[in-house]
Amino acid sequence: MSTPIIEFRGAGKNFGDVTALAGVDLSIDAGEIYAVIGHSGAGKSTLVRLINALERATSGEVLVDGVDITKLSERRLREVRLGIGMVFQQFNLMRSRTVFGNVAYPLKVAGWAKADRERRVTELLKFVGIADKAWQYPDQLSGGQKQRVGIARALATNPKILLADESTSALDPETTGEVLRLLKRVNSEFGVTIVVITHEMEVVREIADRVAVLKDGKVIEHGPVREVFAAPREPTTKTFVETVLRARPDPADLARIRERHPGRLVIARVSDDRRIGPVLSEAISRYDVRFEVVHGGVKELGSTSFGSLTLELIGADAAVDKLIADLRAATDVEELV
Ligand SMILES: Nc1ncnc2c1ncn2[C@@H]1O[C@H](COP(=O)(O)OP(=O)(O)O)[C@@H](O)[C@H]1O
Ligand SMILES: [Mg+2]
């Protein structure tokens, strides 16, 4: 898993005097699920549209399978696009065609014979779990079912790459989970490289191997999802991570906590390789400091867990200082004042 299938080399995109992307370097490996997260307007859709050349870069290079697609003719681009499927936030299904007709459409365009189309569509609808809906129309389906049709259609011609731009943003959390699990199966069973564009860190946590954080058209941080969650560096990334962990008490929580817990409060980040248990278990015997967990959350990520805990530390000031110093040696600690 280390051959890049998609590479951005200093890729930029301007719309008039608006810079949507400013010199992006990014390398996505064949067979991985790569997430790009950012707030609205960060340049995510522009980035994904450069991969299938719906937009042309105004500077730098975009390589797909080693070929710089910014230099290709429209004719050659059509061939490249055949190897790339796309799913959309609003599904983009044709209302006048049945589920079957929607999934068969790209095969028709690609010139597949009728019998081959029927076999392929049947197989795809079964894979995405809506074989019983083949003769229904999009308007008769739920959001999750529509997105299953969108995924089946995107996979019809056996693409190596699947681009998903906010593909779960119109769905409720439960349906989001079902669609993300389906995308994971697309990746693991067919080896399709998936680029997931999202503004939700929970989506990144559930599905991605690696993540890049986009801000004002630039990649400000990237890495394996577990590393970014365990130790986010940029303020934007920290905010995204906290949305998942609900780790930090909000002002109303904090006011309630303060009423019941007059001691000093600290927030400590925890993960499998940043344990605070050993320090806390000695708090009483070494420093005569008692502690209580007053807020926090720990989540699973693959085989590891991570999160943060708000602790009340009760004891003499100098002793609490010493305990905090020990905690700081183990992990990031912030005192709430
Ligand atoms: N076709 C376009 N014409 C002019 N400006 C655009 C166009 N597409 C995107 N932009 C601008 O580029 C920036 C990035 O947009 P976009 O890639 O859609 O961000 P995101 O998907 O992260 O919300 C925004 O400022 C947006 O207004
Ligand atoms: Mg967008």
UniProtKB/TrEMBL annotation:
A Pfam family of the record is NIL
- Domain ABC transporter stretches: 6-241
Which InterPro entries does the entry link to?
A: AAA+_ATPase, ABC_transporter-like_ATP-bd, ABC_transporter-like_CS, ACT-like_dom_sf, MetN_ABC, MetN_ABC_transporter-like, NIL_domain, P-loop_NTPase
Provide the GO MF annotations for this entry.
ATP binding
Query: Do the record's keywords include Nucleotide-binding?
Result: yes
Keywords carried by this UniProt record: Amino-acid transport, ATP-binding, Cell membrane, Membrane, Nucleotide-binding, Translocase, Transport
Q: Which domain of life is it from?
A: Bacteria
Q: State the SUPFAM superfamilies in the record.
A: ACT-like, P-loop containing nucleoside triphosphate hydrolases
Query: Is-annotated flag, keyword Nucleotide-binding?
Result: yes
Protein name listed in UniProt: Methionine ABC transporter ATP-binding protein
Q: Which species? A: Kibdelosporangium philippinense
